[in-house]
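pipeline: protein-struct stage 2 | run 1193 | Amidohydrolase
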Amino acid sequence: MIRDIEDSAAEFMAIRRDLHAHPELSFAEERTASRVAELLEGWGIPVVRGVGRTGVVGILQRGQGKRAIGLRADMDALPVEEHNRFDHASRHPGRMHACGHDGHTAMLLAAARHLALHAEFDGTIVLIFQPAEEGGTGALAMMADGLFERFPVDAVFAAHNWPGLPVGSFAVSPGPMMASCNEFTIVVHGKGAHAAMPDQSIDAIQVAFQIGTALQTIVSRNVKPSESVVLSITQVNAGDALNVLPDSCQLRGTVRCFSVQARDFVEARMRQLVQNIGAAHGARCEMEFKCNCPPTTNHPAETAFLQGVLRELVGPANVHTFEPTMSAEDFSFMLEAKAGCYFMIGNGDGDHRHAGHGLGPCMLHNPSFDFNDALIPIGASAWVGLAQAWLAQERM
């Protein structure tokens, strides 16, 4: 680890815990963004606020180098009621840093200070503090606000803590890291009737049941076994009374996959089944399919470069291959626009938790989660090493 960063670990732990105690939801990160901007400015880093509504961009530039790298951290919290009761637990009911974005922000801040005050480099480092990763597509908002036009970079990188991965280790792989996130809503319009007179109805619930069963055959019988796809129905809504067959039924759910081709195939097959099953029973069906974000797909060259930096930092044995997960990440939008890589930093198995933690496991999106502060110097050192190595390439 970098000595200066290790020596300031307590200071950035305090910053992280302050952010944890004051969580803010997507596009409401006013206090967080102000805190980030004020710290950066205090270290002499030029700052642009309000990029993508509440995003913050810091620009570190030295020498005449033309290379530029983007480093991204997310800032938003989740609408979760925290179960922890330690001193830095959320002070706002129904809001919690249950995914470690407070830690991601602290790691990049620690790296930013070292780069500003101590590091040597030739080129430009763009520090991207992004709002609204949790379903708000803040990455897309920053890009729509001209992120890469106003602050050009050759490549962009992001990191996320990962429970279960040992502290002091990293995991990354080229290609898909996380799945695309898509949601669907199906409405079956039948004909309502008295529950005792089903012959006078077009039973929307029974039609919806058949559609739901048929949809499960898409993954098992239509998608290639080598292609990973998840299709889950998560909501069924119909009716208000026990003695009434309702005239409509709604199904909602999610589709996750690692390629755009698989996503498009699944959507087309869903529409075909919904319309044909509805028509077979005399019902009218509507389907809405929304693509929230694409797969998070790492670029091979940038991934290999990052792996080399991480191996130098923690040793080859501590840089693992990441098994792709069906969760989603809106950094995927940035990786569609720019070359880059998304990687994981080990958050441990929960041994860092002391008195005051909830009884649940220390897993992401769990009300008993807490970011492991031991990661701050490790992650910050990784950011510094990556930025300096990337910018030094032109002198090789």
